[in-house]
Design goal:
Elements: E1 5-15, H1 35-45, E2 63-64, E3 73-85, H2 90-99, E4 105-112, E5 125-133, H3 144-154, E6 159-162, E7 178-186, E8 191-193, E9 196-205, H4 212-225, H5 231-238, E10 252-258, H6 260-265, H7 275-295, H8 297-308
Parallel strand pairs: 3-10
Antiparallel strand pairs: 1-3, 1-4, 2-3, 5-9, 5-10, 6-7, 7-9, 8-9
Length: about 325
């Protein structure tokens, strides 16, 4: 007789967001393709969710560490659930789940967690990255000094601020508008793919609002390009209504979710990424996500032409 046990499990997975209408399942729009809907189907086919619980993620205690918008990618997202384990080997289960997933999602790892593990509440901070092709910015982006200037602007976002103008449907002064940014930095070395260069931003914080990161990128690039002033960053935190440019979704990827406090308390079952898993993440990034961003270059050119230089570059 087959042995079945139900265990709280952390799921680490990557996905290419181009073909999805966001990551979170949308029950009110059943025909909409989402990452979680595909995961649920694969987990059910792999006998990790019972037929009684299929279609009801709340019944398996599903929690998610992040939600991404339409077109946004993830190198390593994390969710948690009470999962049925029917095979002793974790690798066998992992292989079966991946065999039932589409090519734009890859299950990286399954990790046993404590019964109280909650992927959302126990995440210490989230790390995102944003790639922007250099070609549309070539006329104003020229040297190491340029990177330093951009990072001076980016540092204005560090700490706790009200990001009501960086999202929607949140009024100024509301507690939920406050967000803590740990790091916002443009890396020194560009990413090179198919002879094209991309500048890479790293954004780390406790949590982020809808559209917040894309608007942080939009504001920073706009200030650097001269469309806005340095003081506009502070104004956007204070003014009731301040229009902040929204950078394209195509360049944004969730990088990592960190469970620092949980890992210190639960050293026997930490949520950590091994070297082998890092390789899986890197392979998916290079084979799926990066080529997709590369194909999206016209979107960035259109954004620069309409948002930054609608009348041409000022020299």
């Amino acid at each position: 007789m087959e042995t079945i046990s139900k265990k709280k499990t952390a799921l680490l997975f990557a996905y290419n967001g181009a073909g999805f209408n966001g990551s979170q399942i949308q029950k009110e729009h059943e025909g909409v393709r989402t990452v979680e809907a595909e995961l649920q189907n694969a987990l059910f086919k792999s006998r990790c969710i019972s037929s009684d619980n299929f279609g009801f993620l709340n019944k398996v205690g599903w929690t998610r560490a992040s939600r991404t918008d339409k077109g946004v990618h993830a190198l390593c997202a994390v969710a948690a659930m009470k999962m049925l384990w029917r095979i002793n080997s974790c690798e066998e289960i992992l292989d079966e789940i991946n065999s039932n997933l589409p090519s734009d999602i890859r299950m990286i790892s399954l990790k046993l967690a404590t019964n109280a593990f909650n992927a959302k509440n126990l995440a210490s901070f989230r790390e995102y990255q944003y790639l922007f092709p250099l070609t549309p910015l070539r006329s104003i982006f020229s040297s190491q000094e340029t990177i330093e200037k951009i990072n001076i602007i980016a540092k204005k976002f560090y700490g706790t601020h009200s990001f009501h103008n960086y999202t929607r449907d949140i009024l100024p002064g509301k507690p939920e508008a406050k967000r803590y940014v740990i790091k916002f930095e443009l890396e020194t070395n560009p990413v090179v793919y198919e002879n094209s260069e991309y500048i890479k931003f790293i954004i780390t914080g406790q949590s982020f609002l809808y559209h917040q990161i894309r608007k942080m990128i939009g504001m920073t690039v706009s200030v650097f390009a001269g469309k806005m002033q340095d003081c506009d960053v502070e104004k956007s935190f204070a003014d009731d209504n301040f229009v902040v440019p929204l950078a394209p979704a195509e360049g944004l990827s969730l990088g990592r979710v960190h469970f620092t406090v949980y890992n210190k308390k639960q050293q026997h079952r930490p949520i950590l990424i091994t070297d082998e898993e890092e390789k899986k993440i890197d392979d998916f990034y290079k084979q799926s996500i990066l080529p997709t961003i590369h194909l999206s270059r016209p979107v960035f050119q259109q954004w620069v032409d309409s948002e930054l230089f609608p009348l041409g570059v000022i020299t």
